Amino acid sequence: MSIKSLLVSLFRMPCLFHLMTGLYCPGCGGTRAVKYLLQGDWKNSLIYHPFVLYSVIAAALWAADAIYGKVCSGRRRRASKKRESLFLILGTAIILINWIAKNLLLVCWGIDLLAVPL
Questions:
Q1: Residue 31 located in a structural domain
Q2: Is the Cβ–Cβ distance between 24 and 103 less than 8 Å?
Q3: In Å, how far from its chain's centre is CA 62?
Q4: Nearest CA to 48 among 63, 66, 33, 60?
Q5: Local structure of 116: helix, strand or coil
Q6: What is the pTM for the complete model shown?
Q7: Which domain, by its residues, includes 57?
Q8: How many helices (H) and strands (E) in the chain?
Q9: pLDDT, tens digit, for every residue of 6-18?
Q10: Closest to 52 in 3D by CA, of 34, 38, 29
Q11: Is residue 62 part of a domain?
Q12: How many Å apart are CA 79 and CA 87, to the nearest integer?
């Protein structure tokens, strides 16, 4: 078995939560979102799982803030700790809202946003 086929089989592994309940887990669609983001298709990435794009943007902002803090003051500023908490709260909210919205669409209206294959 080649490394490529092993990686493809790992990334195509079904979500056990979805198989057992018929509902999406909070991370469903994340792998496809990463795939589309790496291809430069940020719109599909956002549809499959908005947290992926958010985490890239948040990481870039966090890194810029950390570099700015080191260059300008020699140490991290107190305000950056508050921003980190805000990033975590916002990221958690994005995951929960995405999870609830996708399951509501699936259960109430029969709209399956993740039905399109990789």
A1: yes
A2: yes
A3: 17
A4: 33
A5: coil
A6: 0.78
A7: 25-109
A8: 6, 0
A9: 555 556 667 788 8
A10: 34
A11: yes
A12: 13
Q: What is the pLDDT of residue 72?
A: 77
Q: How many domains does the chain have?
A: 1
Neighbours of 25 (CB within 10 A): 16
Read off the tokens for 80: 């950056």
Contact (Cβ atoms closer than 8 angstroms) between residue 112 and residue 40: no
- Does some domain include residue 59? yes
Which pLDDT band, with edges at 50, 70 and 90, does 40 fall under?
very high
Rounded CA gap, 77 and 85, in Å?
Answer: 14
d(CA 14, CA 95): 19
Give pLDDT tens digits for 99-113: 999 999 999 999 888
Our measurement of the distance from residue 43's CA atom to the centroid of its chain's CA atoms, rounded to an integer in Å, reads: 13
Q: What is the pLDDT of residue 56?
A: 95
**Owner of token pair 């669409």:** 105
In a domain, 58, yes or no: yes
Token output for 118: 């990789």
Residue 114: half-sphere exposure toward Cβ, Cα within 13 Å: 24
